[in-house]
Amino acid sequence: MAVGEVGALAAAGRRRVARRVPGVRAPPAAGRRGAVAASLGAPPPRTRPFGGDAWDEARAGARRMERERPNAARPEDGPGRLGPDSPRPADLDPRLMPGHVAVIMDGNGRWARGRGRGVGEGHEQGAESLRTLVKCCNNWGVDTATVYAFSMENWERPDFEVNFLLGLMERLLGAESAELHAQRVCVQFVGDLGRLPSQLRAEMDRVCDLTRGNPGLRLNLAVSYGGRQDIVQACARIATEVELGTLRASDVDEALVSDFLLLSKTDGREGEEHVKSRQRREPDLLIRTSGELRLSNFLLWEMAYTELHFTDVMWPDFGAQELYEALLSYQRRQRRYGARPPGA
Ligand code: FPP
User: Fold this and answer.
1) What is the Cα 187 distance to its own chain's centre?
2) Cα–Cα distance, 318 to 322 (Å, whole number)
3) Domain residue ranges of the chain, discontinuous segments joined by +
């Protein structure tokens, strides 16, 4: 079962949630358990080919981006500005590096509109920023990065944009997988992947298989992901186990809930203690760009004690320099987890 696929009860859970949470479409009632598990009650996958002026414009934008690579290295920023290939800056303490960084990559649309360009170009440039993030996290000693590539709520965007984003994802996975593998990055996906077009899912499976077990950065791409929906599917599966008698209600604790959430499926490196895996699911640092001060349904359970870093920079302008500033800000904080530090 691919990471992110859940069972019939999760579909039932979503039917309940769909009544309350805008943007979650209610799946049909279960007929046969297997059939529901396979489809997750999703609407038909979006396989319509791209077309029309908007797509041509986006493709032209992609070619322009390829030439310009705006955040690769900006001479106007002077020689001190960090780029994707910069080594870890000396004032970042490797011992204080966050093990897990989560990122809400926001502001692609505003970045593009501010330049009189189509939203597709914003997403294309956002992909360039993601490339930089991955390289730097990998080279600077971050263990795990979980990025919000496509939220549950993003399904409500215009068809053109949804198709564009999913198409971009498929294209990026095709174009970048060899490089990611060469960097020893381990790529995994979390979300309701059953809603995605089959070609994209096939590409996801291929990249997961290719990079499985790589010892470098764990890159979790949250696609068709929602934090509340994840908690609901975990509750539903736990309830089933209790009904079946394979779990007792008294077994339910924080560790158990964590083990039923989607990120638990990304643990998978051999020889690691389970307790460590659980800790690693919880981001140490969340970065959100574009000046918005919200969590937007991202990793709600996992971020109970995450340090938050908000910046006004739009995601397409977020490069190595901005990552460095976020990490430096993190390293200067004292994490207390609600307790009182000794002597205070
Ligand atoms: C938010 O910007 C960004 C997204 C909805 C998608 C994030 C996607 C990328 C960074 C592209 C590359 C990554 C993959 C894996 C395809 P927004 O469009 O909401 O910006 P706005 O709030 O300014 O409109």
Assistant:
1) 11
2) 6
3) 8-17+31-69+88-331
Q: Which atom of ligand 1 is nearest to the CA of 110?
A: 23
In whole angstroms, what is the distance from residue 226 CA to residue 242 CA? Answer: 25
| Residue 45 DSSP SS3 | coil
CA dist., res. 131 & res. 311, Å (int): 19
Sheet hosting strand 100-104, strand order edge to edge: 186-190, 218-225, 144-151, 100-104, 285-288, 307-310
Architecture of domain 8-17+31-69+88-331: 3-Layer(aba) Sandwich (3.40)
Q: Strands 218-225 and 285-288: what pairing?
A: unpaired
Q: What is the DSSP letter of 27?
A: P
Which one-letter amino acid corresponds to residue 60?
A
Going from the Cα of 125 to the center of ligand 1, the distance in angstroms, rounded, reads 9
Token digits for 209?
């298989």
* Token pair for 142: 């971050």
Query: pLDDT tens across 145-172, in order?
Result: 999 999 999 999 999 999 999 999 999 9
> Ligand 1 centre and the CA of 204: distance in Å?
19
Among the listed residues 332, 316, 306, 336, the one whose alpha carbon sits nearest the alpha carbon of residue 101:
306
State the catalytic residue, choosing from 71, 138, 154, 214: 154
- The predicted-structure confidence for 272-288, as pLDDT tens digits, reads as follows 666 667 788 999 999 99
Catalytic site residue from 106, 192, 284, 317: 106
